[in-house]
Amino acid sequence: MKRATKDTARGILRYLKPHAAYLVLSAVFALVAVAGQLVVPFLAGRGVDCIVSAGNVDYARLSRVFLGIGLCVAAATASQWFMNLCNNRVVYHVLADVRRDAFRKIEKLPLKTLDARAYGEVASVVVTDADQFAEGLLLAFTQFFTGLLTIFGVLGIMLALRWEIALIVVVLTPASLLTARFIASRTYRMFREQAVARADQTAFIDEMIGNLKTVKAYGHEDENVFVFREKNETLRKSSLRAVFYSSTTNPTTRFINSVVYAAVALAGSLFAIGSGGAFSVGSLTTFLSYSNQYTRPFNEISEVVAEFQNALACAARLFALIAEEEERSDEGLASLGEVDGRVEFCDVDFSYTPERPLIEHMNFTAEAGKRIAIVGPTGCGKTTLINLIMRFYDVVGGSVKVDGMDVREITRVSLRKNVGMVLQDTWIKEGTVRENLCMGAPNATEEEMIAAAKAARAHGFIMRLPQGYDTEIGGEGTLSQGQRQLLCIARVMLSRPPMLILDEATSSIDTRTERIVQAAFAELMRGRTCFIVAHRLSTIETADEILVMRDGSIVERGTHRELLAKGGFYAELYEAQFAG
């Protein structure tokens, strides 16, 4: 745990380094603020000594004391305000930097890394843990540093004024420090457990909200409430344990500090009685004020330590995400220019997990401009082939080639610019219809955009929207699933890439519209290499070649007529689908 804490601390220092100037400025303002606060008790003691007895008051000297106190308070207050400005700027710039790096990391992570984690958990790390980290860091800057300055400043003044009384404070103080350290050393683990439980609950909530229709359709509400209750109870217990244990620091240190105050009062009174005026009532007042000032930061620091332990636990999760291994860099790789679209699978091996092989020694060639359909039962590896072509995953063995070039030797950007995808799961970003259509072709003209929408049979419903192509969309309830899919089809038609991947591209469209869109697709696919993943075999009857997959292997290949005539696995699938 100590090593993890050190690594986290180094990570925090790395993010603080660019803001060193503001940290120095904050330290200067902190020094001025603490100095102003430390002078006030000294002046107050001198003010008490100005009042000797009834009718015996040195008003001239007392007025100067009040003026000094006013100036010190004004300087301390102004410095405190400027210090807070500097601290806020540093903390929230660091927070923005950490979130930026975390989001960039998510963009660069291999899909296998993200697929292994709940998306809600990742979101919790970037949003909630980052907020907790910032709050703890802000407390550390605003209270921890000024608290330390106050402690050492007061101790120095007390030693200079009366070392005997200061010695009492020095002897009793370590008890407060040891108590705070003992509790803090055990709260880090508890706050880390709390952060994990919170992320788990967030991931579950995200999953349930995203799939609420399915939950309601299957009447699974009560079961979800039960699961949520368990996760909520886990979070409650971990939070209660962490907060309760850390909260014992403050009352414990307050008790010890009260003992220190009482000891100073007793010793100071004895010195005042027996010193013959050398140690005045004003001096005793000064020491009591300093005793309060000396012990107060220990209470504040104990609170800060508890919060900072939580911040460290959250920071550790953030830095762990940022430290995840990225996809292999494309630096030095060739850029894929205009392509013919010839795709080869050469002795390809692939598995999502090493202990469960999926594809072994796969070989096939898709000639440029041909339409290749991929069919087979669920889980046979159809979508995996698409993932390998797009380099969402890299092969374990063998190679995938485009125009004779291994895709691992081509930059991902240039490869993916040459491939248009329409998936079964549609994605529409928050924005206007126009922005969504022009994602792949930002320089497209108005006429080209409308022509693509008409070809995809989307122009009609777009014009019925309140602002037509300038209508804001993105929410689940804005468009039907079929309309969203038509927009995705139009988006690909507008970019007109040399290769196409259609993964159940018309699954959410009614049969009549599907036939119309298929005609548009036929025009779009002319002269382009196309990979068509389909469950409805009627949609791939005109494919140039059909690859029939089972358990990660190509068991049959040929045209629709050839495969039916063969009477093999494809014929079984076809007959099962059209029986009767």
Set down the secondary structure blueprint.
Elements: H1 2-16, H2 20-49, E1 51-53, E2 56-57, H3 59-108, H4 111-115, H5 119-161, H6 163-210, H7 212-217, H8 221-247, H9 249-274, H10 281-322, E3 343-350, E4 359-366, E5 371-375, H11 382-389, E6 397-402, E7 405-406, H12 412-417, E8 419-422, E9 431-432, H13 433-437, H14 446-455, H15 459-463, E10 472-473, H16 481-495, E11 499-503, H17 511-525, E12 529-533, E13 545-550, E14 553-558, H18 560-566, H19 569-578
Parallel strand pairs: 5-12, 5-13, 8-11, 11-12
Antiparallel strand pairs: 1-2, 3-4, 3-6, 6-7, 9-10, 13-14
Helix pairs in contact: 1-10, 2-3, 2-5, 2-10, 3-5, 3-10, 5-6, 5-10, 6-8, 6-9, 6-10, 9-10, 14-16, 18-19
Q: So, the CATH homologous superfamily of the largest domain? A: ABC transporter type 1, transmembrane domain
Number of separate domains:
2
Helix amount, in percent?
55-70%
Strand order of the largest sheet: 8-11-12-5-13-14
Number of helices: 19
Quote the distance from N terminus to C terminus.
66 Å
Number of strands: 14
Global Rg: 36 Å
CATH architecture of the largest domain: Up-down Bundle
Describe the structure.
By secondary structure, this protein is α/β, with parallel strands linked by helices. It has two domains: 2-322, Up-down Bundle (ABC transporter transmembrane region fold), CATH 1.20.1560; 343-578, Rossmann fold, CATH 3.40.50.300. The protein has 19 helices and 14 strands. It has helices spanning 2-16, 20-49, 59-108, 111-115, 119-161, 163-210, 212-217, 221-247, 249-274, 281-322, 382-389, 412-417, 433-437, 446-455, 459-463, 481-495, 511-525, 560-566, 569-578, and strands at 51-53, 56-57, 343-350, 359-366, 371-375, 397-402, 405-406, 419-422, 431-432, 472-473, 499-503, 529-533, 545-550, 553-558. A six-stranded mixed sheet has the order 8-11-12-5-13-14. Strand 6 and strand 7 form a beta hairpin. The two termini are 66 Å apart.
